[in-house]
Amino acid sequence: MPQAIHIINGPNLNLLGSREPEIYGSQTLADIETICRDAAGDIDIVFKQSNIEGELVDFIQMAGRDAQAIVLNPAAYTHTSIALYDAIKAVGIPTIEIHLSQPAARESFRRRSFVSEAATGTISGFGADSYLLGLQAAIKLVKASP
């Protein structure tokens, strides 16, 4: 089986480039996907986005069958979703939580992450580079596994 990393994106990330660029930057999700594919080398990338929590759970479960790691930007579901927490725990593969902004420096309701409690690690606050840093961490974990 070829090595694969699934990059999963939550709600409103389809609006990147136009949604609050002062917080999220001017790059679109398609721009970020291209950057990630270029950086992945010989690792297969599956890139998905949904505004629907249940679809994100399905994507995580699919990654558990087909991938060696997940890079997940859960967006607003970071702070509310026990379902994402449970899915990450259930699949048992390394999961890197990423955020474009720094949630801890924003509104108080953004300071709790249920996803962080299940993730292998978290990268936040580096804009689109958060994806590259998360991908680098995932690649390192995939290459280190037997």
What would you say this structure looks like, in words?
The protein is of the alpha/beta class and 146 residues long. It has one domain (4-144): 3-Layer(aba) Sandwich (Rossmann fold). Helix content is 38%, strand content 18%. It has five helices and five strands; from the N terminus they run βααβαβαββα. The chain has a five-stranded parallel β-sheet, sandwiched between helices. Helix 4 links the parallel strand 3 and strand 4 (95-99). It starts with a strand and ends with a helix.
State the main characteristics.
146 residues, five-stranded parallel β-sheet, 38% helix, 18% strand, globular
What is the CATH domain class?
Alpha Beta
What is the oligomer described by this structure?
A: single chain
Strand order of the largest sheet: 2-1-3-4-5
Tally of helical runs: 5
Organism: Algimonas arctica
Site (Transition state stabilizer): 19
GO molecular function: 3-dehydroquinate dehydratase activity
Subunit structure: Homododecamer.
Would you summarize the structure shown here?
The protein is α/β, with parallel strands linked by helices and 146 residues long. Helix content is 38%, strand content 18%.
Give me the secondary-structure topology:
Layout: E1 4-9, H1 21-24, H2 29-39, E2 44-49, H3 53-66, E3 69-73, H4 82-91, E4 95-99, E5 121-124, H5 129-144
Helix pairs in contact: 2-5, 3-4
